[in-house]
Structure formats: C-alpha cells, structure tokens
C-alpha cells in the first residue's frame, strides 16, 4: 500500500551519503535525484524512501511519534542495518532483538533525528 516515504533534511549531501550506504545493505539504489530531493528503491514496483529539503523553506524536523519501518529478510540484515546506521553517525533507539514471537527488530535515528527501524518476521 505504501508507495514511498519522504523525510526532511537540511543537508541533502550528508543525508544522501548516509542513505546511500545504509540502503545499499538491502539492495536499494538511487532512482531519482534533484538538487533538493533524492529517492531510493530496491527495484521497480517496490516502495521507495526519499529525502528532501522542506518545500516551505523552513528547517526540517523529525516527527514526534513518526517511524519508518524497513522490512528485510533476516535477523542478520536487521543487525547489519542497525550497526551500519550507528557507524554512519545515527543514534541507537533500540538494539536488535526479538520483540514479540518471530518479530525481530532494531531501532535507530538518522542524522536528522528521523526514527527508523529494520525488521523481519521469521528468517534464519
């Protein structure tokens, strides 16, 4: 149902470098790019993630209570995404681990304070 999600940033280059490395772990690549906007996708027909300078010209802010969930196919990829986010300067919001039944997740914030999680259900 979700086509894409857009996050605000005040530093396109810094944020794009963060997401280039982080999203490469799940096979996502840039598919659209302008001076104030960059978008990634893992392939045609899959949801995308984009960053942009806010249209109204005001400072970007992270939504309180907003979180973007990135589905991956294994706990090992959840672990790798969390570790890479922290390596790139992101902040820990919840170490990788089982949360409920077969739901395995890790939580982190990007360089602009946006909250994301990497998760899988089942997996190895």
Structure description:
By secondary structure, this protein is of the alpha/beta class. It has one domain: 2,3-Dihydroxybiphenyl 1,2-Dioxygenase, domain 1. Helix content is 21%, strand content 40%. It has helices at 12-24, 75-87, and strands at residues 4-8, 29-34, 37-41, 48-52, 67-71, 91-100, 103-109, 115-121. It has a four-stranded mixed sheet, covered by helices on one side. Strands 5-8-7-6 form a four-stranded mixed sheet. A hairpin with a 6-residue loop joins strand 3 and strand 4. The longest helix has 13 residues, at 12-24. The protein is globular. 28% of the residues are buried.
Strand-helix topology:
Elements: E1 4-8, H1 12-24, E2 29-34, E3 37-41, E4 48-52, E5 67-71, H2 75-87, E6 91-100, E7 103-109, E8 115-121
Parallel strand pairs: 1-4, 5-8
Antiparallel strand pairs: 2-3, 3-4, 6-7, 7-8
Helix tally equals 2
User: What portion of residues is helical?
Assistant: 10-25%
Write out the strand line-up for the largest beta sheet, numbering strands in chain order: 1-4-3-2
Distance between the termini: 26 Å
Under CATH at level 1, the class stands as: Alpha Beta
Seen as an oligomer or otherwise, the chain set is: single chain
Residue share in β-strands: 35-45%
């Amino acid at each position: 149902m979700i086509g894409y999600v857009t996050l605000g940033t005040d530093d396109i280059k810094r944020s794009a470098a963060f997401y280039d490395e982080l999203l490469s772990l799940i096979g996502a690549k840039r598919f659209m790019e302008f001076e104030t906007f960059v978008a990634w996708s893992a392939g045609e027909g899959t949801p995308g993630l984009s960053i942009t300078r806010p249209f109204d010209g005001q400072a970007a802010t992270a939504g309180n209570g907003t979180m973007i969930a990135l589905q991956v196919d294994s706990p090992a990829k959840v672990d790798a995404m969390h570790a890479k986010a922290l390596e790139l300067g992101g902040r820990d919001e919840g170490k990788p681990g089982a949360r409920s039944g077969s739901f395995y997740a890790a939580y982190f914030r990007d360089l602009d304070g946006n909250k994301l999680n990497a998760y899988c259900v089942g997996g190895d």
